[in-house]
Amino acid sequence: MSKTSWFYAIVDVEACARAEVAPLVHAERCIESGASWVQLRAKLGRDDHHRSLAAAMLAMCKRSEVTFVVNDRVKLAAEIGAPLAHVGQGDGSAADWHQLAPTVRLGRSTHALEEVHAALAEVPTYLAFGPVFPTATKRNPEPVVGLDMLAAAHALTRARGVPLVAIGGIDAARLPEVLPHCEAVAFISALLPARGESARDPFARLGLACP
Question: What domains sit in the chain, N to C, each tagged with a CATH number?
Fold first, then answer.
């Protein structure tokens, strides 16, 4: 199965519920469509509520040699043997997390160039930067950064050899202008079907083949 290097799929449990799509089925479709990264994002509930799903997604990603990421839940990532966790600006220092979960590498969200500078000092596996465009996924999103600031962030991360993941409001129409300024693009709602669509339609819009 061939992978698309820039395709970072976020399987958001709450977004999947709204679209009436099972998260594990959605993760499988993302992998079959060539995702290089798959992140489990579950903002509600305790770790116990999501452990079986996280373990199943990790096993699925391992079989396909896809990088699996757990959003926020660093301890859960360590418990199931996931290689990566994604943390936000308010989620503590990398040093603290490495002490708690030394086997888990970190990616971090950034929303301003000052945050990029600070995050690079932590030697992350990757950085996410955004929202590039307006997004409805988050209840209280950070201010939109735009393409010019994305390009500036990319210059900083590229100089340090750290992959940059663009995120926020990116759809098929905007993808070509985003790709030159990052190594990967993260999608949440753009991967989920609208009412009346097939599960394959969102992937086809992005130029991705879903078997």
Answer: 4-205 (3.20.20.70)
Q: How far apart are CA 104 and CA 84, in angstroms?
A: 5
Alpha-carbon 151 to chain mean position? 19
Label residue 62 exposed, middle or buried (CB < 10 Å: 0-12, 13-18, 19+): middle
Closest CA to 29 of 38, 40, 17, 20: 38
Quote the pLDDT of residue 198: 92
d(CA 43, CA 74): 13
- C-alpha torsion sign, points 179, 181, 166, 3: positive
Q: pTM score, two decimals?
A: 0.95
Q: What is the pLDDT of residues 61-95, one digit of tens each?
A: 999 999 999 999 999 999 999 999 999 998 878 88
